[in-house]
Design goal:
Length: 163
Amino acid sequence: MNVGMIGLFVLAIIIMLIGLAGTILPMLPGLPIMWLGAFIYAVFTEFKEIGWTFLGIFALLTAITTLLDYVANLYGAKKMGATRWGISGAFLGMIIGLFTGGLIGLLLGSFVGAVLGEILGGRKGSQALKAGVGTFLGFLGGTMVKFVVGCAMMGVFLWKVLF
């Protein structure tokens, strides 16, 4: 690898790491960013190590995982009786929690936001708490799936490029 190739590889890895962080952080589209990192590398290396088949599989994984993330969030929330108030509160709580308490704030903010959203929507304490738990579990499940898929994508990318 020459200096230019090393720089390109490092750039692709940085983009993919930002994408991996985005699998956890709600305001970054994590897997699409990871796909972009692989695509940039593929274009500049004329698709030698990373080809269209690889990019197509990554795109399919990205689409399926993104869909599963939304379904997991909605399923967890609806299964436990959450309303739009709880789901909106969970999203707002995640953002506020992220900026005020990092990763722990993100997790707690989702739960607290869902409970407060349900209370503001007219739900009683136990109903709001149940909906908050469902919303939190749905968020956690979807996030874990995205993170695992992101790690797998990064691992396969590294394998293809380095070996």
